[in-house]
Amino acid sequence: MRRVVALAAFAALLAMVQGVAAAYLPLGWCPDLGLLLVVGMGLCWRSTAGGVLVALLGGYAADLLSGTLLGQHALVRVVAYALARLFSAQIDLRSALPQMIWVALLAVTVAALLASTTTFFVPGAGFALPPLRALAVHALATGLAAPLVTGLTARLVTLLGSEEEARRQLHFEPRSFRT
Questions:
Q1: What confidence tens digit (pLDDT) does each residue in 103-150 have?
Q2: Which of 71, 59, 77, 46 minimizes the C-alpha distance to 154?
Q3: Is the CB of residue 106 less than 8 Å from the CB of residue 83?
Q4: Of 10, 81, 104, 179, which is least packed with CB atoms within 10 Å of its CB?
Q5: Which positions ≥6 away from 105 have C-beta within 8 Å?
Q6: What is the pTM of this model?
Q7: Which of 155, 157, 173 is nearest to 165 (CA)?
Q8: Rounded Cα–Cα distance for residues 44 and 106 (Å)
């Protein structure tokens, strides 16, 4: 539980840092730090329930700070966490280049999911993606920041190891039926 609370607080902090950084960086050059945290958790954290809970809380913090529909980022972050868990089992995303490419594609997917949920829940809103150049720059910035943030997330998850993992494991040798 300690790990979930600490990572949820870190997700809220990243949402605030991203909001401040977006005010000073040119359009699209601010990476999606919350998405990168979710991807990092999907790559290194074994607890699926804890990862979903942190993705929900971090997404909800992003919803509150960005002024979008409540639950929109939370839903998309849970989907991103599920995709990170699924693809990390199929593709080796631990090295930098595959991780950067996959995260850049995921950033475009997240933008499409956010536009889709807005279209679905807001009457009269059309499907509107950001301008293609801004979307490409954002995907590039998010992809380039991926190894740094996911590595930081892996270190944080290791640092906040749970009490159950810290205890010694007692291993029993199998019995032999030979006499």
A1: 999 999 999 999 999 999 888 888 888 889 999 999 999 999 999 999
A2: 46
A3: yes
A4: 179
A5: 139
A6: 0.85
A7: 157
A8: 17
